[in-house]
């Protein structure tokens, strides 16, 4: 259900950007950046959990 809220929020942000015309984009940038950063961290965590016994992937994730 959390994904539905995130998708609705992103859709509303995009719609408001399109409808308001010359509105400062930075107003919407911070929350969207948080969503993308959280998604990136979640994907890294899933990769780490799945491949933590493979040394090459483990080293790659630590270096990042």
UniProtKB/TrEMBL annotation:
Organism of origin: Bacteroides caccae
Q: Which UniProt keywords apply?
A: Membrane, Transmembrane, Transmembrane helix
So where does this one cross the membrane? 25-48
| Name of the protein described by the UniProt record | Uncharacterized protein
